[in-house]
Amino acid sequence: MLFLPLLLLSGCNWAILDPQGPIGRAEKSLVFTAVILMLIVVVPVIVLTLAFAWHFRASNKKAVYRPDFHHSTTIEIVVWVIPCLIVLALGILTWKTTHALDPYKPLVAQNDEKPIEVDVIALDWKWLFVYPQLHIASVNELAMPVGASVDFRITSGTVMNAFFIPQLGTQIYAMGGMQTEVHLAADHAGTYHGLSANFSGDGFSGMTFNAIAMDQSGFDAWVQKVRGSSQVLDTQSYAQLSKASENVPVTYYGTVNGDIFGEQIASFVGSAPSMKMKSNGDQASAKGTGAMNGMSGM
C-alpha cells in the first residue's frame, strides 16, 4: 500500500486503457490477452513459492524431508508443457495481430466514406498538420470527422520524433528524409491528447497537440474557420515556422501553396521521391540496393 502513491509519479499514460478508436481497442485487447496468458504461469509460481515456503518451514513437523528426491515425470510435464503452450499461443497471437494492426494497412471505410489525408511534419518543438485535399494547415491542432479513416503521412523536419495519440492507438516514428504512415479513426466525439513520445530537446515537454474528433458538420465548420485565416503556408513561411520555438500556440493557415511535405523530405535526401518506409509485406521483396538506401536514410 505504501508504494501505490508512487504510481501517480510514474509518468504512465493511462489513456491507452481508454481507447476511443478501432486501432486503440484492438491494441488494448492484445495487451490484456497477452498479460492474462503470462499470468497463467506467473500467478501459480508466486502462490506455490509462498505455499512451499510455508509448508516446509522449520516448525512444521508434518513436512516430509526427502533429501533423495531428484525427479518427477508429472512435475516435468507440467513445468515444460504449459509454458510451451503459452509461448505457442503468444507467438500465434503476435503473428496475427502484427499483420492485422500493420500501421500501413488502410482502415475499412464506414459507408464508403473517403479517407481524410493528413501530412504530419514534426518540427522543433511543434506539430504541423497539412490537409492536402483541402489545401489548409494547422499547427498543434488536428481535426477529424468521427468514424472517418484518417490517413497520416509522417516525416520530420528535424531530429527523430514519435507521433502518438494514445487513445486512438499506434505510436509511429517521424524521421527526417523518410516517410512513415499510420491509419487511425475515432469512434466518438472528443478531444484527445497527442504528443511526441521521443525526446527531442529543450522544448520536448511542450510538443503536444489536441486531436479533435467531431461530427461532419463540426468538421466542415472547422475547415471553414481555418480557411478564414489570412496566413499562407508556402516555402518562405514554412522556413520561418521550422525555426526552433517552444510552447507554440495553435495556428491556422488558410492556404497552402506547393507540396510542403514532399519538399521537406527532398531537403534531406536531395531528390523528389520520398524514402517511404515499407510495410511488413513490402520489406520481404526489397532488394539489396533499396535496403542499403533505406539504412543510409536512417
**Number of discrete helical segments:** 7
Strand content: 15-25%
Structural class: alpha/beta
Going across the major beta sheet, what is the strand order? 12-3-2-1-5-8-14
- Number of DSSP-assigned strands: 14
Label the overall shape. Answer: elongated
Structure characterization notes:
There is one protein chain. Strand 6 and strand 7 form a beta hairpin. The strands form 3 sheets. A 7-stranded mixed sheet has the order 12-3-2-1-5-8-14, sandwiched between helices. Strands 4-10-9-6-7 form a 5-stranded mixed sheet. A two-stranded parallel sheet has the order 11-13. The longest helix is centred in the first third of the chain and has 34 residues. The protein is 35% helix and 22% strand. The chain is of the alpha/beta class and 298 residues long. Helix 1 runs antiparallel to helix 2.
Quick summary of this structure?
The protein contains seven helices and 14 strands.
Layout of helices and strands:
Blueprint: H1 22-55, H2 73-100, E1 116-123, E2 126-131, E3 136-139, E4 141-145, E5 150-156, E6 161-164, E7 172-174, E8 178-184, E9 190-196, E10 208-214, H3 216-227, E11 232-233, H4 235-241, E12 251-253, E13 255-256, H5 260-269, E14 275-276, H6 280-283, H7 288-297
Parallel strand pairs: 1-5, 4-10, 8-14, 11-13
Antiparallel strand pairs: 1-2, 2-3, 3-12, 5-8, 6-7, 6-9, 9-10
Please give a handful of descriptors for the protein shown.
transmembrane helix; oxidoreductase; five-stranded mixed sheet; elongated; 298 residues; 14 strands; 7 helices
